[in-house]
Structures are given as C-alpha cells and as structure tokens.
UniProtKB/TrEMBL annotation:
CDD domains: SF2_C_RHA (cd18791). One of its GO terms (cellular component) is ribonucleoprotein complex. Pfam families: DEAD (PF00270), HA2_C (PF21010), Helicase_C (PF00271), OB_NTP_bind (PF07717), WHD_HA2 (PF04408). PROSITE patterns: DEAH_ATP_HELICASE, HELICASE_ATP_BIND_1, HELICASE_CTER. Residues 1-11 have a biased composition (Basic residues). InterPro entries: DEAD-box_helicase_OB_fold, DEAD/DEAH_box_helicase_dom, DNA/RNA_helicase_DEAH_CS, HA2_WH, Helicase-assoc_dom, Helicase_ATP-bd, Helicase_C-like, P-loop_NTPase. This is RNA helicase. Keywords: ATP-binding, Helicase, Hydrolase, Nucleotide-binding. Gene3D superfamilies: 1.20.120.1080, P-loop containing nucleotide triphosphate hydrolases. It catalyses: ATP + H2O = ADP + phosphate + H(+).
Length: 720
DNA sequence: GAGCACTGC
C-alpha cells in the first residue's frame, strides 16, 4: 500500500482559534490533522460518508428555471443565429426592456446565467433605434478580459459585421474598436482609464455595468463615477445653455444575483427587470453535522458520488493549490482500488497558477469508461465554465487576500465563502441537466454565512484607486459616493501612503508628480520609481524591473521537480537579490529569444514572461509620451537602479538585528525573508522589499540587498 | 526552509 503524503500542519495564529472571538485583522486558524486513508477499507469509507449526509430527510430542491430549450449546435448561418437569439429568455423581454430604457435614466437588470443579457441588451438598444453614432455608443464593462473579447466576437457575429467595426472591444494590450464602433465591450479597468481623458464619458450615451455583483474595486469606483457623469451631464444641460448640449447618459446595471434594493436606492431608480436564466434544477444535500476536516469530507463525498451516482463529471471546490494537489493524490490512490465494474476516475486540476496547457485539459471530455473529477479553486466559480458537470462538492472555503492598514501588511487566509458564492457554486451542477450539489456544511452553517462576499473596496489597499480618484478631480475621497464606503482607516492609510510618495500635498491635493503617476497603469510606488529613474539615468532597468514585478512569478516549479527547479534557478541568482535576479532572467530570455524549450528546461514561466514583455512595451510608450528618456541605462551598476527603487519603496526596508532577524525600519516589526527569495538565509545589513505578506509568518517578498546609508540619501532626494 | 484565491490598467 502506498503511503500518503503528510499534510503540513498549517497554523497561522493559535490565539484566534474560535471564529467568533477572532480579531478581524487576523487570519483564521488553519490547522488540520494528518489525513489517513486506508485503501483496503473502501466499505468503511463509504459508510462513513453516508453519515455525513442525511440524504433522504434533508433534500432541498432548488428549481431555477424550466426553460430547457435546446441550443442549436454546429455551424451557424444567419438564420441559425436569429433562431438562437429568439430562443434566449431575454428575447421575450426586449420590448419591455427598450421601453424601460427610454423612460428611465437608470435601470437594473437582474438576469440569471444563460439569460442572454450580456449579448442581447446592447443589440436591442441599437435595433430599436436608441443609439446613433452621433449620440454616442454603448460601453459594456466586464471584470475579465476573456469575457470582453468573447462577448464582442459573439455579438459582432450576430450583428453580421466584422469584429472591430460596429461591434468591438478594448482591453489592455488589445484594442479592436474604431470610430464606427457603437457597441464596445471593455474591461472595467479600461473604462476607468478612459475616464482620465473623458471624465463625463461623452463618447457614450449608454454605459452598461455588467457582472455588478462581483463588486470588484474597479466596478465599485465606476458606479460612483458613472453616476456622477450622468448627473453632471443632466445639470449642465439645465444651467449652461450656451455650452453644447450634452446627450443624457443612460446607465444599465446588470448582474446575476444582487441586492437589487440596494442598487436601486443607490442609483435612485425603481426600474428593476428580472430575467430568468437557463438553469436546470439542482438538488442540494447538506451535511448532517459540521465537518472537522473539509479535505477528508471532500474525499469521502466525492468517492461516494462516484460509487453511487450515474455518469456525469464531479466538480470539487477547494481553497487552494495545496489542497488540490493533496486531494488529487488521494483520489488517484483510491481510484486504483475500485471494483472493476465501476467507471475509472480521472482527475483534472484547475487553478490560476497552472500552465495554460494543463488548464485547458479540463475541457477534454472524459474518455469512455471514465468519470472526470475536477479539483478547482474559485476560478471555476466565475472565470471558467466546464461542460459535463453534474455534481458539485463544495467545501465552502476560499482564500481571501486582505490588507491590514494598521501594519501595512497583506494576509492570505482560508475563509468561509458567502451564501451567494455557495449558490453560484451550486449552479455549476445544473448547466446542462439537473444536478446535485453536496455541501460539506450544515443548513445551519449555511444560514450563518455572510449573505455576500465582502466587496474588495472594504478590504484592499486603496492607494491606487485613491490616486486615480484624485486625478479624476474627486478631492473629497472620504465623501465620495461609494455604494459601500471603505473604512476610514483604509482611506487614511492610502492618503498617507500617497502623501509620503509626494503624490499628494499636505492639503491632500494631487501634485504634478501625482498626476504623472496616475497616468501609469501601475501601483503608485512603481509609477514613482519610473519617474525617479529619469534623474538617476536608469530608466531602462527601472522599466524592466517594474515589468518583471507585474506578474505573480517568472518561475514555475512543478510539484514533483521542485528541487531541480530551484537548482536551475541558481544560475540567475544575483547577490543584489531578487530584483536583479529577475533582470538576469529577462536578459537570458531575450538572448534565447523566448525559446520555449529553454524556458521549460530552466523552469521559466513563459506565459508570464510574455506578459512582462508586453508590459515593458506599454511602459516604454507611456514614458516616451511623458518625455522620459527610455534608453538611459545604468549598465551593470545595479546599485543605481536599486537606489531608484528605494524612491518608491523606502518605507519597505528592514535591517538585520544582532539577533539575526530583520526588523522594519519604519514600524519596527519583525519580518522574514521569504524562502523563495534569492536572499533567503543570506545575512545582509539591510534589505528592501516590494511586498509584505502574512501567511505562516510575516514574509518579505522580492527582496534586495541595500546599504542603510542609501536610505538617508534617498530621503534627502525625495525631499527635493 | 515556504507556498501562490481571483482579477485588472
């Protein structure tokens, strides 16, 4: 019998064992016993599973829609496309929808998945003559690039025009729109950027904010800015007669599930349209008692579904990569001991850091005689839809990144999801046929969950978004019309950070430097570095380092080859630390012209390196536009570029103590070099880092060796 | 001697 991989005991903070007494600033305790699975004892395992669910008693069927009309398949010609459109639930509502848009300034559309709201709404407006190129077109925002691109190409097809003409999209690095574009899909971040040069959005007569329930920081800011543009355009028409007449701005807020009352109140409207989706009923099974170990429960439940239930793939929601990899091993071990008459199991992993080729494997249908078990993070809740799923197993856990303004540190912790999130996960079982969702928590636990996930704006570092608001002319950021206002501590921290970077003056007004910084699609500290590099003649290196830091990691280390990977990494390592190490990788990558074989052998993440190259290109263009010489270089005198980095990150510095640990200079906290760093276990006098993350310990990431006297030099430099 | 939920400009 094979031995199971030991699971690490991950304990973050033993003082916060009880959820109800925990400090909201601190992550939840994560601690698990070692999971043992006896391969020769299948019966015992499956009978144990039966105890988890009271299947007969607690059966709860949730029927979302009875509209089971078939979607036409195969090659689509014009009439197929029309038939397809007519079959969408929203088609019946089109007259109503158009009338409501004519009547109201703002409407809210609540449409479930498969209702056709994202593709049809803009088309109806055009077809009913509400839009003309003279008045201004329609902008539809999406939280994700892929969604913006695929919606645009779908709609341009239905519209019978070439993509980029009447229907187009605009996302970072890729703009397929023209003067004649009247329906434009864009990422929410892209519309925020457009606000910088067109704060009243005069290019558009309708703005549609799609997927509003996701409440990204960017959509939340757009809510306020779009509402403001609508009011100003209306009032200008009243007051300023000689000024050119502004076309009124219509706002449409769309989402799957949302607190419509809250949105209606915020947007001063009472027009709410509800459109049913195309969803099959999903039966929910709750656990009969709370589960001690969600991974153990996920294993037993998954295997029991496999043994008891007819064919159909299983989707298991887990919080992170580590759990996914452990469960994969356990399921595969278990799978070898299945009776010969049962289907074989194949496992598919799905998380963001996985190379694209492996991600796309989840779309391959299960071969005959097998059942596919997909082990996924939150990525399968919103970003990726997989066909063939009939069963969902939900651990109710996900990882949440939070920013603690008091200590300026981020933390990543496993937390319970919200009810809306759980319902979204459940819906994944009923995309093509009725399904079953196994919740590894009790009905009572469900009732005690938060209704909605806390919006990003209440838990993230606000510095980037506050700088943008200031640049957009919103001086009173505390009084901004937020749908949900962030805490004063978060706001104050952001203002303070921007003041220290000299992006704001002591009155909180944006400075010339701040305006320049806001032009860059970067966090304020990085933008500051680029601007400072001009004087220090190291713009080339500064741009490259900033680009390299724009991806999660330029390395990859597959589970089974970690040692080999770290061995290969050594040849790039610089005594100056991580930033120069990354620069070395970029240099070699370019010598190799991005050769994929070279990347593979050196454990370089090619997808992320390509992104680095694109960011560099964009930053070079932006610098040129702002009159910054982009070819000034410090050559191999890396001290210069590191000093330049200090202009943005001087607060992120720590010195080595006689006790051999590091303490931050500004807040006197104990911090550690992250084990993935080139400077791990290397004792240097002082370090600068770009990120401080609390996981099992407070870890500094992207660490560079500096000298403490550089700090006073930089401080003087910054005062200038 | 650790680990990386997910996005976006």
């Amino acid at each position: 019998m094979k031995t199971n991989r030991k699971r690490k005991h991950r304990s973050i903070n033993n003082d916060n064992k009880h959820t109800n007494q925990k400090d909201p600033d601190e992550p939840e305790l994560i601690s698990r016993k070692n999971l043992k699975l006896d391969n020769n004892n299948n019966d015992k395992q499956s009978s144990k599973t039966k105890d988890i669910f009271n299947m007969d008693k607690k059966r709860n069927s949730q029927k979302q829609s009875s509209d089971n009309s078939k979607i036409s398949k195969g090659k689509k010609n014009g009439s197929d496309l029309i038939k397809f459109r007519k079959d969408l639930p929203i088609w019946q509502e089109r007259n109503n929808l158009v009338q409501e848009v004519k009547k109201s300034e703002t409407i809210i559309i609540m449409g479930e998945m498969g209702s056709g709201k994202s593709t049809q709404t803009p088309q109806f407006l055009v077809e009913f003559g509400l839009i003309s190129s003279k008045k201004g077109g329609i902008a539809i925002t999406q939280p994700r690039r892929v969604a913006a691109i695929s919606l645009a190409s779908r709609v341009s097809q239905e519209f019978g025009t070439q993509l980029g003409q009447k229907v187009g999209y605009s996302v970072r690095f890729d703009d397929k729109s023209s003067h004649s574009t009247i329906i434009k899909y864009l990422t929410d971040g892209m519309l925020l950027r457009e606000l910088l040069s067109d704060s009243l959005l005069l290019k558009y007569s309708v703005v549609i904010l799609d997927e509003a329930h996701e409440r990204t920081m960017r959509t939340d800011i757009l809510f306020g800015m779009v509402k403001r543009a609508q009011e100003i355009r209306k009032n200008k028409n009243k007051i300023d007669q000689e000024d050119k007449n502004y076309e009124p701005l219509k706002i449409i807020v769309m989402s799957a599930t949302l607190d419509t009352e809250k949105f209606a109140k915020y947007f001063n409207t009472s027009t709410i349209l509800k459109i049913s989706g195309r969803q099959f009923p999903v039966t929910i099974n709750y656990a009969s008692e709370p589960q001690q170990d969600y991974l153990d429960a996920a294993l037993t439940t998954t295997m029991q579904i496999h043994i008891d239930q007819p064919k159909g793939d299983i989707l298991v929601f887990l919080p992170g990569q580590e759990d996914i990899e452990i469960l994969e091993k356990l399921i595969n071990e278990y799978g070898t001991s299945l009776p010969p008459d049962k289907l074989k199991v194949i496992t598919c992993l799905l998380f963001a850091a996985l190379p694209t080729e492996q991600q796309t494997k989840v779309f391959d249908p299960a071969p005959p005689g097998t059942r596919k078990i997909i082990l996924a993070t939150n990525i399968a809740e919103t970003s990726i839809t997989i066909r063939g799923v009939r069963y969902v197993v939900d651990t109710a856990k996900c990882k949440i990144r939070k920013f603690n303004p008091r200590i300026g540190m981020e933390s990543l912790s496993i937390e319970n999801i919200s009810q809306n999130s759980a319902d979204q996960r459940m819906g994944r079982a009923g995309r093509e046929a009725p399904g079953i969702c196994h919740r590894l928590f009790t009905k009572d636990e469900y009732n005690r969950m938060e209704k909605d996930t806390e919006p990003e704006i209440k838990r993230c570092n606000l510095a980037p978004i506050i700088l943008l608001l200031k640049a957009l002319g919103i001086d009173d950021v505390l009084g901004f019309d937020y749908l949900d206002a962030p805490s004063r501590t978060l706001l104050k921290r952001a203002l303070e950070q921007l003041f220290i970077l000299k992006a704001l003056d002591s009155q909180g007004k944006i400075t010339e430097l701040g305006r320049k910084m806001a032009e860059f699609p970067l966090e304020p500290a990085y933008a500051k570095v680029l601007i400072a590099s001009q004087e220090m003649s190291c713009t080339r290196e500064a741009i490259e380092i900033v680009s390299l830091l724009s991806v999660e990691s330029i390395f990859f280390s597959p589970q089974d080859q970690r040692e080999h990977a770290s061995e290969m990494k050594k040849k790039f390592v610089s005594p100056f630390g991580d930033l120069i190490t990354y620069l070395n990788v970029l240099r070699s990558y370019e010598v190799q012209k991005g050769n994929s074989e070279w990347c593979y052998q050196n454990f370089i993440n090619r997808r992320n390196m390509k992104h680095v190259i694109e960011v560099r290109k964009q930053l070079i263009q932006l610098c040129i536009r702002m009159g910054i010489q982009t070819n000034s270089s410090c050559g191999n005198e890396y001290e210069i570029v590191l000093k330049c980095m200090l202009c943005g990150f001087f607060r992120n510095s720590a010195t080595l103590q006689p006790t051999n640990n590091y303490k931050t200079i500004f807040s006197n906290q104990n911090v550690n070099v992250h084990p993935s760093s080139a400077l791990f276990n290397k004792k240097v006098e002082a370090v600068m880092y770009t990120e401080l993350v609390l996981t099992t310990k407070p870890y500094m990431k992207n660490v560079s060796a500096i000298q403490s006297n550089w700090l006073s030099d930089t401080a003087l430099n910054i005062q200038k």
